[in-house]
Amino acid sequence: MGEPPLSTLLQILNPEFTSSDTLSILFSLAAIVFLIFCSACFSGSENALFSLNAAQLEELQETPGSKSKAINFLTRNPKKLLAIILIANTFVNIAVVMVTSAMFHTIFDFVAYPWLGIALELVSVTFMLVLFGEVIPKIYSFKHNVKVAALLALPLYRTYFVIRPLVSILEHSTSIIDKRITRKGHIFSADELTHAIDITSEKDTPKQEKSILKSVVNFGNTNVKQIMQQRPDIVGADYNLNFKELMRHIVESGYSRIPVYDNNLDQIKGVLFTKDLLTHMDEGDQFEWRKLLRPAFFVPESKKIDDLLKEFQIKRMHLAIVVDEFGGTSGLVSMEDIVEEVFGEIQDEFDEDEHVFTRINQNTFVFEAKMLINDVCRYMEVDTAIFEDVRNEAETLGGLLLEINRDLPRLGQELKYAKFTFKIESVDARKIKRVKVSVDPN
């Protein structure tokens, strides 16, 4: 009776092969399949257990029996879980390499070309472990994390008790390294974080969320001067108004808090809350409304808005007067201005539409010249750094154009800078009022 075809083929590959080695190869193949299956289970359990959200975790923890105990233990001890998976997977992968190597040396004769044997083993083992032991199980477990977690939690929990000493050693070692890394860890700059937000896909992070995240990242680097209402836009009340004139002025202004000044805005006497006047509506012109003034809160232009927000919360205030280096009033900032810096323009039912911004098409905009440069850039979705070389101390679009032109431009005049064309749509003898901005898409 002749040799089986498989034995004949194997004898061609390795002249020293005998029929008794066939059984050894079959056992080796079965062992490799089993070990790769174990590797897939460990790899998949990592993705499944670490990707569970709060609702899924609560659902699994309500499962009766030891499975619930296993899931609760593993999810509450993520370092132990990771150590179990790493140690077990390492042992399995080493076993795959050893069994595969022994099987290859039984099948092939690499005496003449040892480097070929090493290369073949390396490619084969790497392919099997990466594809079947890592990629496929991780993709599957990510899509079916609840199912995989419920299936593998108990085996993992039992594995922990088998390799517990090794888990403890690895856990303590990583704790020491973790403490050192925490102390010496890399501190990401705002630019790095902004870049990270930019490169995320629109599917994962919508454009509006990206804008909010960028604002949060740059929140601590933004100062009061960049978001305040400029001095010409401040609506205040003269200290010398009688009560009737004051009430008429407050009704026209529509603000709930207004600064009160004596002669000019550099002489702020306090802040008047309109709610304090409600109980005095029937008073005559001679009513001494000035006794209702509250102390004004003054902040410098350079103050960071995150610090100001904390002070607003501590002092329970919503309004601050911004002063320049000489003590003169340069602007006004409110709690709403700070919130708008993160979430964008907020309008309630009492706000009038000021039409400070109009989008004509994808690359053409019309802005009021008093709009802050930061807001202009946000609406056009460009980086504010593009104007750093020419803006100097300018904070508004009108101020930027004065820096570019060095003189008050005339009506209809076009100014060019980088990829922007600014056309003056409205101007008076003292200032620019409205500007059309065209952006070259190329």
Description:
By secondary structure, the chain is α+β, with helices and mostly antiparallel strands. It folds into four domains: 5-184, no CATH class; 190-217, no CATH class; 222-343, CBS-domain (Roll), CATH 3.10.580; 357-439, Uridine Diphospho-n-acetylenolpyruvylglucosamine Reductase, domain 3. 53% of the residues lie in helices and 14% in strands. It has 17 helices and twelve strands. The strands form three sheets. The chain has a five-stranded antiparallel sheet with strand order 8-9-12-11-10, covered by helices on one side. Strands 1-7-6-5 form a four-stranded mixed sheet. The model has no long low-confidence stretch (mean pLDDT 80).
> How many DSSP helices?
17
Q: Report the β-strand fraction as a percent range.
A: 5-15%
Structural class: alpha+beta
Q: Into how many domains do the coordinates divide?
A: 4
* Rg of Cα set: 36 Å
Summarize the structure.
With 442 residues, the chain is of the alpha+beta class.
List strands and helices in order, with pairings.
Elements: H1 5-13, H2 21-50, H3 54-61, H4 66-76, H5 78-107, H6 114-143, H7 145-162, H8 164-184, H9 190-198, H10 207-217, H11 224-227, E1 229-230, E2 237-238, H12 243-253, E3 257-262, E4 264-273, E5 298-300, H13 305-315, E6 319-323, E7 329-334, H14 335-343, E8 357-361, E9 364-368, H15 373-380, H16 388-391, H17 397-405, E10 414-417, E11 420-427, E12 432-439
Parallel strand pairs: 2-3, 5-6
Antiparallel strand pairs: 1-7, 3-4, 6-7, 8-9, 9-12, 10-11, 11-12
